[in-house]
Amino acid sequence: MAYFLKRFSHMLFVLWAVATILFFMFRTMPGTPLAAFIDNTTTAEQQDALIRQFGLDKSLGEQYWLFLTNLMQGDLGQSFFFKKPVVEVVMEVFPNSVILTLTSLIVAYLFGIMVGAYLAWRRGSWVEGLGIPLVLTTRAAPEFWLGMVLLAFFSFHLGWFPSGGANTSGSDWTSSWQRVTSLDYLSHLALPAITLAIYLHGLPLLLMRSNMLNVLQEEFITMARMKGLSTWTIVIRHAARNALLPVATSFALGIGGAVGGNVVVETVFSWPGIGRLLVNAVSASDYPLAQGAFLMITAVLVVMNFIADVSYNLLDPRVRVETR
Amino acid sequence: MLTNPKTLLRAAFAAATTAVLMAGSLPAAAESGDEVRKLTLISRAQAANPQQFQGAELIAQAWRKLGLDVEVQGMPRPQQSDAVWYNRDTWDLTMWQMVGRPERSDPDELIYNLFHSSTAEKGYNFVGYVNPEYDTLVEKQRVTANRDDRKVMIDRLQDIINEDQVYAFLVHPLQTFAIDKTVWNASSTVVQPGLGIKNFWTYTNIEPLGDQKDMILNSSDELNAINPFYISGATDSWITELIWDRMMRIGPTGLAEPWAAKSVEWSSDSMSVTVTLRDGMMWHDGTPVTAEDVVFSFTAPVKYAPMYKPFVNGIANIEVLDASTVRFDLSKPNAAFETSTLSKLNLAPKHVWEPLLAALGEGESAESIREESRIGSGPFKFNRWANQQEVVLDANTDHWSAPKMERWILRIVLNVEATLGMLRSGELNFLSDYTGDPVLLIEASDADGDLDVVESVDIGFQYVAFNLRRPPFDDTAFRRALSTAINRELIRKAAYNGFAVTANSVVSPALSFWHKAGIDKELPTGINLAKSILEEAGYVVEDGKLHYPAGQTELFGE
Q1: Cβ–Cβ below 8 Å for A151 and B216
Q2: ipTM of the complex
Q3: Of the four listed, A127, B34, B198, B422, which is most buried by Cβ atoms within 10 Å?
Q4: Are the C-beta atoms of residues A37 and A50 closer than 8 Å to each other?
Q5: Per-residue pLDDT tens digits for B142-164
Q6: Domain ranges within chain A, ordered by starting residue
Q7: Based on the domain organization, do B254 and B367 belong to the same domain?
């Protein structure tokens, strides 16, 4: 219990520190939120009015205090640009980011785990000789390039998938659930998810492979072989289960990291998501939106980290003993 | 510190005349002032605006030949705005642009705001141009009702800008649009000078050929608001003008035409205008549009819509004459009133907006209201807006000018290549925002066969702005020399791939009535000419570095 409390207070401290850094970082960056508004016939008095409206006429300390007290009440403020609460703006596109990320993470990890385990088993064979360079190459390919190649081939050339967006123009749906489970949505999801999966699969694959190589050296595997168990049973039931732990952790962290959106993939495929939102918020100096969105991402990341830690504790008795 | 521009002007002219008379015969001056400091030319980053950045590089190359140390610095737009717009005393040179809008079909908005001394401190005149002669004339054209008289003044104003070379104008870009001619009847599009086929009239007029009756267009910018009292970016205004009617609209000729108004009648002294609403106009929720709504739409901006306030400032009083007629009394005559006010303000329903405005707190404006029903009276009704994805409008079949399409769907597509792919696959059938290389579009169109590409000269223009507050840019001769050194033809061909026309005026040739014909030929160019202008003005090149005329010190050196 003390362990949980300690971890929890760590979490709060990290969140406070990040919030503070974000607050000052955006305000000391070059640029002003007004810049996003001057393309129109802005006069001097309008500029002053905007400054007042954004609360930027107050001292930095005062602004910081307001920000913190509001934050404690769960209020992330109002976006300068969208003129509505930050939480609302973020939640509009958040599900799309989560769906894209989760889909590609699951595909990448299923593929990575299986192929990683297989490559470990076939160590030293031609399969490994071909497989590892191939994995490293696709892992190193820039996302935007990969995205454009897939787009050019599967969409422009073959016409199998749409070229962008999350739904066919003007399509109607009765509920969000119906929308995201529709064939239309899934066909729009396919290319961005594959691009991201190709980008992400390297880590679990290589991690799984090296863990497997370690596990396969252990005595209980030799024991299993001596018992005459089939290859399949040894790889899956004995070795893989043990090698999986670090991969599970990296999956949890992957979720945390990926909620931050994928600016590149979202831009290439015009996929609505939190990455695009952030880029816009930062370049338009929409302080509340930028710091609010980053803070939400940090929160998810910190929580996932916490869960990974705790689950590790539960899953692996050896870790549990050490923390006592 | 600023020298009187008028004196400067005379001096420059004297210098230029002598230059022509005595070219080459003068011995190089023995004495000279300080070396001119290193100059920074600000531009958008290469990735964001390759044409502008490449133009800046070409210009810097030319200026280096004059003995100047010039550095091009690319930066994102907000940073550029911050450096130039909000810190007016600290920059030297920047690439800048003005974009085309329907209301800019009347030259007043640009020719007044950009150069009138009253906007130098915080407004549009960010270069700090102060010329009393110009001020007087530009104020006078505003109150001149006779178009031909006004044209003479607008010509003269264009001349003054040319003589003073306040900006080094570069090009008016060509805009490219495309339609899928298997979906739309290509001959039913309407071309509006300076705006091309992407305009209100095309949207209400274009005829579908088959079952596809939805127009699917694209925007390469994210959208921030759809609000009749707020323009948050370029894309908003494409949408608001469809949902909300206006008393008048800028027609395909570039002139204001009665729209929601049945008639627009001016008093003989041009001090008041009586406007009568069309019969049977309805808001999208079925309630009638009344004279009260008109009054509301033109008075609410004074207090609640900062962006529209400048356009209603000249209205002294609005009088309701009967249920559908109102009279606007102006505080002084305004030649651009029809264009910049009657064609600009959106008619918003009083019953929806008045309670919302009343609930606003101190310092808040209509801009901070997110009214989701978006009821207007225009030819399109708001259906939905999915952020980062699309905006869907439905045709208002009850409108007197009901569109022939069923829905107008604006897709947000950030990837230029994907935009072309979508156009070819039919996911888009009207390319309304294309930021890529026009040659690629034309190649795609040739390969496809179903597309019709339409080009038009923009009302907007690209230019180099000099900061007139800081020497040597306060010297007309220096500005003229720099402008003369620029090879605009090279920029047109190399940076714009030929998709631009060279410019030397704030009034685009797209506005054929107002543009001073041949003004782009009134600026002879060439490096040698530029060198001789500098020499005549007393600038000296020593060891390859340009120095100020004798006795002048560098005030802004590092």
Answers
A1: no
A2: 0.75
A3: B422
A4: yes
A5: 888 788 999 999 999 999 999 99
A6: 2-72, 91-323
A7: yes
